[in-house]
Amino acid sequence: MTDQGIAAWKLPLIVAAIAVSIVGAFYIGGPGMGMAEGSIVAGIIVALAVRNPPLHPIVPARAGDRREHLLVVVDEPLEDSTALERIAAASTAIDPREPGPEVRVVAPTHNRFLDRWASDTRPGRDQAQRSLVLTLASLARAGVDASARLGDEDIVQTVTDQLRTYPATEVFLVTGATDREGSAAAEELRSRLHTPFHHLRCAPPQQGTGRPAFANRR
Length: 218
Description:
This protein is α/β, with parallel strands linked by helices. It is built from 6 helices and 6 strands, in the order αβαβααβαβαββ.
């Protein structure tokens, strides 16, 4: 787990540096300079807080049974044969007498800037629903029964929202091989998730063999 905070021993030094700079400004330049220095320091603190918000661990809801629960987040339709085999294997019960894992598929609802500006979320929802339909059809052909949900525009927020009520024991993120936004989201999820995480990067069929690259959390 990556530590997202500041080491405890650094905090007194930071507070001391802030206090010394403000007191020094009052001593050298009087009240005017002291107030100006205080305003500058306050602005810097606010800017840093906005750009670097605290990142808390993402912990799934507690399960009410011993069944496995898989969360599959698809940033594009899941049609790659190797990725399907990977998820199908994870959704197979180890003991045939036990119920198989529950599988939930979620598609983030991406919207273009102009659509957001016009408050028109329909294009993003239509695209997400298309991804869900294609993904569920592919999973069904692989023998995997799954439910579907629409998610937030942000991938990390989508996972966070789902895990508030869904007790995922394993999380899969499916993105394009060159999707920078998806890769950034995967890195953040890898550092914050308190459950096994797998990033499946799938190349478009026309650009390669269609075999995904795997980046597993553990």
